[in-house]
Design brief:
Layout: H1 18-33, H2 40-47, H3 51-57, H4 61-73, H5 83-98, H6 103-115, H7 118-140, H8 144-165, H9 171-185
Helix pairs in contact: 1-2, 1-4, 4-6, 4-7, 5-8, 5-9, 6-7, 7-8
Length: about 190
């Protein structure tokens, strides 16, 4: 009689890549069904994982969406030789990310939910906005309130367009947004 060999891997589904699978399923589900109809049950089904797998990692749909957005956005590519170039590239990068399938819908949805959910608002602010705000503050040499205004103007405008038309802002309008925003922010007394 032969003994069954034992595996070094613990029983159950392999853990590596679960976040990536769940994030892809989240954006796909939000893109196909909209934020409100993209429930954790539907996301889990689309990812091929149990709902408990999601809730072990994220306590709520909002927390899942914030982590999914962090993954989708990644670090801000602070590119440009001048303040104007850096700000222009940041605006264009943000617009491009928001236009990716599911990303703008997820961002707008979690943002809307955070208005009436202080705990989610704290997660969204601390985990999503703060890393970008701090990177921009450092790169631009600007105080927090000025960088927050820059973020509010740019992201608010892009999300408003998504909410009003259901479509991301077209390149010509992104260029116009850059032209409108730069005179206010790029001529600051910070580093050039």
């Amino acid at each position: 009689m032969t003994r069954a060999s034992t595996s070094a891997r613990p029983p159950g589904r392999p853990r590596s890549g679960v976040n990536a699978v769940v994030f892809a399923a989240t954006l796909r589900t939000v893109h196909e069904l909209g934020y409100a109809r993209a429930t954790v049950d539907r996301i889990a089904a689309a990812a091929g994982v149990a709902k408990t797998t999601i809730y072990r990692r994220w306590p709520s749909k909002g927390a899942l969406i914030v982590d999914c957005l962090l993954d989708a956005f990644g670090p801000v590519p602070l590119e440009g030789a001048s303040r104007a170039e850096l700000m222009s590239s940041t605006i264009r990068w943000t617009a491009a990310k928001i236009s990716e399938p599911g990303v703008g819908d997820a961002f707008a949805g979690v943002f809307s939910d955070a208005v009436s959910d202080p705990a989610l608002r704290e997660v969204l602010s601390a985990q999503f906005q703060d890393p970008y705000r701090l990177a921009l503050q450092d790169a631009l040499g600007e105080p927090e309130d000025r960088v927050l205004l820059f973020i509010d103007v740019v992201v608010g405008t892009l999300l408003h367009r998504m909410g009003m038309t259901g479509e991301p802002m077209v390149n010509a309008d992104v260029a116009a947004l850059v032209e409108m925003v730069l005179p206010h922010f790029a001529d600051s007394s910070g580093p050039t």
